[in-house]
Design goal:
The chain is elongated and about 55 Å long. By secondary structure, the protein is an all-alpha fold. It is 75% helix and 0% strand. The model has no long low-confidence stretch (mean pLDDT 93). The termini are far apart. Helix 1 crosses helix 6 and helix 4 packs parallel to helix 7. It has a domain of 128 residues: Tetracycline Repressor, domain 2.
Length: 183
């Protein structure tokens, strides 16, 4: 039974990753269930088995973006305050690098559910992450909301220009952001 569950979970993650890539490239509204079926190799019944609905798939993309990041951020508790901030930003930039399609979908499509009840879970995860960031910034003496928003903007905007395997590594980018904010 555990092996079947693992296989199901793995396939579901694959479907979400494929959908994130399609939504990032084509847009949520412009991507049909037939497009998703073709890209995943699943018939419509199989597709619904793994995702339930196209809207549920969008929420799964958002969850895969926010939940693991929040979990990693919550686990950073050793080192000096500066080391903890640097580690948080490194984890964050590395997560963005690993989820570029998810980031694009979040930026492009969040408006489609921001005023719906389903958005509350996404907002709660985002708010929890931002609270961790605010604590890490405060621990190094940064309490100015403008600096907080500047770091959020810099890091989140990274998804629009980051090229995996490019000239700068995720760690170098993260360290550069920290150097800027800590000056």
């Amino acid at each position: 039974m555990a092996a079947r569950r693992e296989k199901y979970d793995r396939r579901q993650r694959e479907v979400v990753a494929i959908a994130a890539e399609l939504f990032a490239r084509r847009g949520f509204q412009a991507t049909s269930m037939d497009d998703l079926s073709d890209a995943t190799g699943l018939r419509s019944g199989g597709l619904y088995h793994y995702i339930g609905s196209k809207r549920a798939l969008l929420l799964a993309i958002f969850s895969e973006l926010m939940d693991p990041l929040l979990e990693q951020a919550s686990g950073i508790e050793t080192g000096t305050p500066e080391e903890q901030l640097r580690e948080l930003v490194r984890v964050w930039v590395a997560h963005i690098e690993a989820h570029l399609d998810h980031m694009a979908v979040f930026a492009q499509e969040r408006h489609s559910i921001e005023h719906e009840p389903e958005w509350e879970d996404v907002r709660a995860s985002r708010d929890a992450f931002e609270a961790i960031l605010a604590r890490r910034l405060a621990d190094v003496g940064i309490t100015d909301r403008l600096q907080h928003f500047a770091l959020l903007g810099m890091v989140n905007h990274t998804a629009t220009w980051l090229k995996p395997g490019g000239r700068l590594t995720a760690q170098q980018i993260a360290d550069g952001y920290c150097d800027l904010i800590l000056q």
